[in-house]
Design brief:
alpha+beta, Jelly Rolls, seven-stranded mixed β-sheet, 20% helix, globular
Length: 163
């Protein structure tokens, strides 16, 4: 593991979580993840966890604003072509489709609010990460980047306890 990746992992495991949009706090658990950018940089994100079917249906609908380093991680128990749409989503989002190992398969940047167009990955993925629109470009997050989250590989137990 490279020094950058180790540093990012330390940040991830430190459990630093800042406050995010109040309206989501009651409906979702929160955690933190790190994205190792292709430019050898690390970015710490506070994320809401969408684990249950009710949470995945709700997602970020009706959210009017979100801090730049906040997002939502959709956690699935198996790889599949998990697709998203923007119905009732008020802000543009960057949608990252993430493999079980944390590598990024597909990115849809600056998706249009309220769109009914279904957007999915190019291959089956385990996670979907939604970030503010434009974040992937600003932070140079691309298909060579990697998502590090302490729950990767442990999501089945977490999902069972949440249901």
């Amino acid at each position: 593991m490279t020094l950058i990746a180790r540093t990012c992992l330390v940040l991830l495991l430190s459990g630093c979580i800042s406050l995010a949009a109040d309206e989501l706090d009651d409906a979702f658990d929160r955690d933190v993840l790190v994205i190792v950018g292709s430019g050898h940089s690390c970015y710490l994100f506070d994320v809401y966890l969408a684990v249950t079917p009710t949470q995945t249906r709700r997602g970020l609908m009706y959210v009017r604003e979100m801090p730049a380093t906040t997002g939502m991680l959709f956690v699935y128990d198996q790889d599949d072509y998990h697709s998203m749409w923007m119905k009732n989503t008020l802000i543009p989002l960057d949608i990252l489709y993430v493999r079980a190992d944390g590598t990024i398969a597909t990115i849809h940047a600056n998706t249009e609010p309220h769109s009914l167009e279904s957007r999915g990955p190019a291959e089956p993925v385990r996670y979907v990460l939604e970030l503010n629109g434009g974040v992937t470009e600003e932070y140079r997050i691309d298909l060579d980047s990697r998502v590090l989250w302490r729950g990767m590989g442990q999501q089945t137990a977490a999902m069972d306890s949440a249901r």
